[in-house]
Amino acid sequence: MEEHLEEMGVSFTPEIVENALKRCFKFGKLAIRFFEWVKHQPRFCHTTEIYNTVIYIACEEGEFGMVEKLMEEMDANLCAKDVKTWTILISGHGKAKKIGKALWAFEEMRRSGCGPDAAAYEAILQALFTARKAELAFEFYKEMVLKKMKVDIKIYSLLMDCLSTAGYIEKARSVGEDMIKIAQLTEAETYSSMLRSFCVSAKVDDACEIFGEMQKKSLCSDLKVYEVFVKGLCRASRMDEAMQVVNDMKPDLDPGGVIYGCLIDGFFRSGQACKALELFSRMRELGCLPKVSSYTQVLQHLFVSGKYSEACELYEEMVQEGVGADVVAITAVVSGHVQNNNISEAWRVFDDMKHGGMRPTRKMYSVFIKELCKTSRETEALRLLNEMSSSKIHVSDYILCLVRNSIARNGEHKKARIVEEEYVCQLAEHQPDLEGHEASSPIDAFDEDEVKELCKILTSSAKGDALNEKLDKTDLVFSPVLVEEAMRRCQRHGRAALQFFSWVGKQPSYCHSSETYNMAIKIAGSGKDFKHMRNLYQEMRRNRCNVTPNTWTIMISQYGQAGLTELALKTFKEMKIEGFKPNGSTFKYMIIFLSGKKGRRMEEAIQIFQEMLPSGYMPDKEMVDIFLSSLCESGRFVEARKAVKSLCKRGFQSQLGYSLLTKSLCRASRVEEALILLGEFGNLGCEVDNRVYANIIHALLREGRLEEALEKVEVMKRAGISTTVHIHTSLIVHFCKEKQIRKAEEIFKLMREEGCQPTVITCSALIRGYMNKGMLLDAWNTFYTMKFKGPSPDFRTYSMFMNCLCKEGKSADALKLIHDMLENQIIPSAINFRTVYYGLNREGKQELAQHVLEIKSNLKKERMISYSSQFI
């Protein structure tokens, strides 16, 4: 690309570059590469507008590291950030659900002197709606109102939805009042909007109240109002009330096919199929023509119920009545014909649809192929596969696996292999090779919507039978890639994930892959069901599925993470006996587990480290850091030095190696040895950078040697080395420990002034310092600042704050933190639960203490794996 640009001979102006970038949104990585290339051209300078465009592209690509770099570049090039810059940042972070970053960007915009405009407020509100932060969204909305900014109608609607979903009904109503007073909407429009919002957010009782007010105000003259309300009642399975509303409608209002369709759908959803069919018949008798969706639901029910002839008659009636059958309806009919072994009729309906000008969708092809494979019609399934390819409809991995496995089950393994190779080659030709790399095989793709649908089923079914029923009803076409990805995302729901693994393995035209077995083994091990983990491994071998070093590494890592070092070591030896060579990950996990404080075995760790290097695997920074720290903590400084020397000989960076050794000595409270090593840096070809100083200063402060630590800070400054966030944090931790909270605050303020962003550890240290001084309000303020502006609290922050609150007799507040952790997908530990439980009991709050046990029990049910034979 760069060669072509050079050959063009074009004089690139900022306007040309900006317009070119704006036309390259679909090719984000190439756009960014062009941006990087053009800035090195003679006499060219990027403008704010160009930076804004590239920041937008980087946000869309999810390249937030690049976004940070671009922002720093703007500062370095003295390129002013305008309102649009900050608005793009807010919107980008909001879409990525990085709400803390979005709020930070909004505050930075204010600090920079750029007054937020209506677009900026809309961006932060959209971000808050996405994150379901209703209270914050309401506050920003109020700011808009106070500043007399025009609020878009869609913002009113989305804010009302957000507040309703969160249960803030009064605030939602106040937004409705503003719609009348400020936006000057009519009462009818406003009340209709509130009714829709309450129905969508499942606040049906409040919707009933609104509907009653509308009736009193005579605002129910529009049929759309009834449609919204009836649909809301049906979704909540309040069918009797829905029927009553329809019966009470004014004579001049005809319910029509839409409202009847809502009722039919509601009856089917609530398991009242007889009432749905009765209503369907009655509306036809009344001369009301059902909508195509109602016909489709009844057709599906008849086919599933074995009433094949009735379903066929109904479809013919539907055609004669002139109800335009859509793709969904025709898919149901085609599927019904195949299920009843009337393949010729299925093809007739399918071909008639195409002759009528309607194109089959990928979903329709998937369902048709799935049903054909179930009835062992591989030849016809292959015909459909060819048709998809010639129609340029993407043949997904699901469909390809389905046909391939079906052919293989028939004993035609060679044909199955040919089919797979042929389609992989065909589809690879259509893959864009924008980066100049080899195009990835489509066999590795999965459909995001289908993964989400499957995850929803797995996470919403508590009981085994209910899960199997839902899985039986789904029309998804299962492939190993889809199964693996769904299980990966549902690891927290281990029981459901493994039950799904067992269920899908028994489905026709499906075979588990090495990757799906590996994922199941990982989930079983993470739930500490090691017996089932081993059973899965044995099953994998029985089914002649390819066992790889990665399979062994997963089992080793699960034992190691559970603290079962002996079993991890035993499995490592068993792996080698079985003839499998450890890979880099295997070596890494073994060394990390053997180096851990719990069950530490340094002799074996040194032995495996010495085995790893000649095998050609280079350790990463994390492994070297843990290994050296363990050696130093064990007093084995000679071995630590030898290890670094060996690594550097094999290409490991000397600067990094000796920096990590210094850090390890400091961690082991060997400050004098670390200072001696510091004096040798010049001879070793290394320089003393701010990271090395940070470790030395931290170690000195930990030993109470404040004056020496401050002296090192001065030495750094004189050498022109910048102070890092780690050094500031170490000083804050020291002063908080000494209960000199004002000095800690001064350091924190100095950090901000220097543009040094605090880390989670910095803010956590301040919270601990405030709690030690009894400054509860300041601690909470710091915590909420972390939540909404970043850096987000992590597991350690929550645990520390929880302990402090329980010590202060505020265990009820600590319980709120447990709820907050779960909302943010952070799993509380057994110690967290125990701390809060005992704290509440001490404070005489036995009911809340019992609630803690219930939360723990529910979480355990989600994560722990049953020994039931259904998973084996």
TrEMBL record:
<feature type="repeat" description="PPR">
    <location>
        <begin position="256"/>
        <end position="290"/>
    </location>
</feature>
<feature type="repeat" description="PPR">
    <location>
        <begin position="794"/>
        <end position="828"/>
    </location>
</feature>
<feature type="repeat" description="PPR">
    <location>
        <begin position="689"/>
        <end position="723"/>
    </location>
</feature>
<keyword id="KW-0677">Repeat</keyword>
<dbReference type="GO" id="GO:0003729">
    <property type="term" value="F:mRNA binding"/>
</dbReference>
<protein>
    <recommendedName>
        <fullName>Pentatricopeptide repeat-containing protein</fullName>
    </recommendedName>
</protein>
<feature type="repeat" description="PPR">
    <location>
        <begin position="724"/>
        <end position="758"/>
    </location>
</feature>
<dbReference type="InterPro" id="IPR051114">
    <property type="entry name" value="Mito_RNA_Proc_CCM1"/>
</dbReference>
<dbReference type="Pfam" id="PF01535">
    <property type="entry name" value="PPR"/>
</dbReference>
<feature type="repeat" description="PPR">
    <location>
        <begin position="82"/>
        <end position="116"/>
    </location>
</feature>
<dbReference type="InterPro" id="IPR002885">
    <property type="entry name" value="PPR_rpt"/>
</dbReference>
<dbReference type="Pfam" id="PF13041">
    <property type="entry name" value="PPR_2"/>
</dbReference>
<dbReference type="GO" id="GO:0006396">
    <property type="term" value="P:RNA processing"/>
</dbReference>
<feature type="repeat" description="PPR">
    <location>
        <begin position="187"/>
        <end position="221"/>
    </location>
</feature>
<feature type="repeat" description="PPR">
    <location>
        <begin position="361"/>
        <end position="395"/>
    </location>
</feature>
<feature type="repeat" description="PPR">
    <location>
        <begin position="583"/>
        <end position="619"/>
    </location>
</feature>
<dbReference type="GO" id="GO:0005739">
    <property type="term" value="C:mitochondrion"/>
</dbReference>
<feature type="repeat" description="PPR">
    <location>
        <begin position="222"/>
        <end position="252"/>
    </location>
</feature>
<feature type="repeat" description="PPR">
    <location>
        <begin position="759"/>
        <end position="793"/>
    </location>
</feature>
<dbReference type="GO" id="GO:0007005">
    <property type="term" value="P:mitochondrion organization"/>
</dbReference>
<dbReference type="InterPro" id="IPR011990">
    <property type="entry name" value="TPR-like_helical_dom_sf"/>
</dbReference>
<feature type="repeat" description="PPR">
    <location>
        <begin position="326"/>
        <end position="360"/>
    </location>
</feature>
<feature type="repeat" description="PPR">
    <location>
        <begin position="548"/>
        <end position="582"/>
    </location>
</feature>
<feature type="repeat" description="PPR">
    <location>
        <begin position="291"/>
        <end position="325"/>
    </location>
</feature>
